[in-house]
Amino acid sequence: MPVITKKGFIYTVKQGDTISAIAAKYGSTVQEIETANHLFPPVTDTGLIFPGNVLVVPTSTTNSPILTYVVAAGDTLTAIAGRFQTSSDLLAGINKISDPDRITVGQNLTVPGFIYKIVSGDTLTKIAKNFGVTVSEIEIANAGRPGFQKDVIWPDYHLIIPILTSSNIFVTNPLPGSTIKSGQKVEGYARVFEAVVNYQLRDANGVIVTRERSVMSNEGAPAFGFFSATLPFDRVPTANTGVLWVYSLSAKDGSIINLVKVNVRF
Question: Which ranges in the chain belong to alpha helices (H)?
Fold first, then answer.
């Protein structure tokens, strides 16, 4: 799938902005921004932007596919969290924000989302199914973007895909819809009891491909710590698709809590 694995920013146009100035600031190009947001006919005159437009700004940086949101005037952490179907508490935690009521214009925030480049034949319904989200969730994530329409999508347009989280776990790797193999990295942020994060992998037939394992995050609750582990296959998958489970166990009764499910391919 044409998932963009390079760093991208979500930027809200302000009075006086030009595409060339935005491109220079974030290490992009005018052509890349115009293509990513379909800033040409029939959507708009070539390169025409207005204050309040929400743009995806692609870059050539390859350190992470997870999106960075640039705080705009009037933003609140609650509103930004709502765009990505997560909580302001989680956003504050992963971005080390001590006071959720105090964010500043121009501040860069890591958010649970990535970019998918639309190809010919795609539909929002098909895209949503592939990534385990709903069409409504995609629409909310892309609200305010000049080239986004519910009923017409353009090849090469860069679509924001939210990454669904639980209250206390955000999986950054693998991305939903990824093709994985034995030894795949499992990474993300977690606020869990004694910093222990559990994971397992099941294929579409319910066969356990990777038995339950655990990894320690680098910080325990109440902080959100980063975790990283490998995903060895204990048996060969019996289907072409599967689901990665990442979760914690209740200190009370050992039941699964904070479960995040990531759709994957083999």
Answer: 19-26, 30-37, 77-83, 88-94, 124-131, 135-141
Q: What per-residue string of b and e applies to 70-100 under the rule 16 or more CB within 10 Å gives b?
A: bbbeebebeebbebbbbbbbbbbbbbebeeb
Place of tokens 């921004």: 33
Q: What is the largest CA-CA distance in the chain?
A: 60
Ramachandran region, residue 19 (left: φ > 0; alpha: ψ -120 to 50; beta: rest): alpha
Please report where in the chains the tokens 């302001």 appear, as a residue: 88
pLDDT tens-digit series, residues 77-125: 999 999 999 999 999 999 999 999 999 999 999 999 999 999 999 999 9
Q: How far, in Å, CA of 171 to CA of 262, rounded?
A: 8
Homologous superfamily of 169-265 in CATH? Answer: Immunoglobulins (2.60.40.10)
**CATH number for the domain running over 3-162:** 3.10.350.10
